[in-house]
């Protein structure tokens, strides 16, 4: 008999729980398709099933990355940042004078950030983009001599680099933290973040569909309601507290951490929705069936990840 380490058992239990939820969701979707839609096209049910199918693929990809450890997770989130940045830049107003700054963003800032995380150089990857890249980007744009809408163009590239690379890169950066008594189990920190934040999104959707009446920000995101927000965040906070056994936290610490990242995830989604409305689009792309683009699936992670990382770094790392 193969003996698994406590970390391996915990990881299997987490993925087993997620798989169980997806099996239940798939069964419900199939039942609804048969009993309600009678096998015919149905916009709501078909959208639900496409979302569940996409979740199966995403969980499988994350599971494969986890199997390869630190290298697999860094490569996965490097690719996620690349496609997210491509979606963001494709919706931004750019001109010929932006070619050099965009090249810097994709071919220097992006790989440089993940390389610094790989070698665990916190002192540099914490400021590499918000200091050095932010200063170099407008310099390159200015050298081109194109001043038309200069501030708007430069700030959009800077903002894209910030949310798509700097913020998202804090997910694999969790692997660099040295938490006493939790050595070798940092992948579980990522699992906790993803399960709680994404769970909050799903639960907000469910609570909103069941009880939602009062809109939070109808001009930004008509589907977000106060009932969905309160019910979803409260449920996800309880979920986070229930997962304390997979973290270095006790139950109340896990609940506080879950509440914090759920709220940041909600506000992150609201900000990204505002950007989409500004650009006149509903979704960032169509990469993930039922979910839109990469940024549509990650909008809540963008704001939650750096807050989660630094809360851990300054509360739990000596």
TrEMBL record:
Top-level taxon in the UniProt lineage: Bacteria
Keyword Signal in annotation: no
GO cellular component labels: plasma membrane
Transmembrane segments: 12-34, 54-79, 100-119, 125-145, 157-175, 187-207, 228-246, 252-275
Keywords: Membrane, Nucleotidyltransferase, Transferase, Transmembrane, Transmembrane helix
GO biological process terms on file: peptidoglycan-based cell wall biogenesis
Molecular function GO labels: nucleotidyltransferase activity
PANTHER family: PHOSPHATIDATE CYTIDYLYLTRANSFERASE (PTHR43535)
Name recorded for this polypeptide: Phosphatidate cytidylyltransferase
């Amino acid at each position: 008999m193969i003996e698994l380490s406590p970390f391996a058992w915990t990881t299997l239990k987490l993925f087993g729980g997620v798989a169980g939820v997806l099996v239940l969701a798939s069964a419900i979707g199939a039942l609804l398709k048969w009993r309600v839609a009678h096998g015919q096209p149905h916009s709501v049910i078909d959208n639900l099933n496409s979302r569940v199918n996409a979740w199966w693929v995403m969980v499988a990809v994350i599971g494969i990355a986890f199997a390869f450890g630190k290298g697999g997770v860094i490569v996965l989130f490097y690719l996620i940042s690349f496609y997210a940045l491509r979606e963001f830049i494709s919706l931004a107003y750019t001109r010929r004078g932006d070619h050099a700054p965009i090249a810097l963003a994709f071919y220097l800032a992006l790989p440089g950030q993940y390389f610094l995380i790989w070698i665990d150089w916190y002192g540099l990857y914490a400021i590499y983009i918000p200091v050095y890249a932010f200063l170099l980007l407008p310099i390159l744009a200015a050298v081109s001599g194109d001043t038309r809408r200069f501030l708007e163009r430069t700030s959009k590239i800077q903002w894209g680099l910030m949310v798509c690379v700097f913020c998202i890169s804090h997910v694999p950066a969790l692997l660099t933290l040295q938490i006493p008594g939790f050595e070798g189990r940092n992948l579980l920190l990522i699992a906790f973040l993803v399960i709680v934040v994404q769970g909050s999104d799903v639960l907000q959707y469910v609570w909103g569909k069941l009880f939602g009446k009062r809109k939070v920000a109808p001009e930004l995101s008509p589907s977000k309601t106060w009932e969905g927000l309160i019910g979803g965040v409260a449920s996800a906070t309880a979920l986070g507290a229930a997962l304390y056994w997979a973290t270095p936290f006790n139950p109340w610490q896990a609940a506080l951490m879950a509440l914090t990242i759920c709220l940041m995830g909600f506000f992150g989604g609201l900000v990204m929705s505002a950007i989409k409305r500004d650009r006149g689009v509903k979704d960032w792309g169509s990469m993930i069936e039922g979910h839109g683009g990469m940024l549509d699936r990650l909008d809540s992670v963008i704001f939650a990840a750096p807050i989660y990382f630094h809360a851990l770094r300054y509360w739990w790392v000596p």
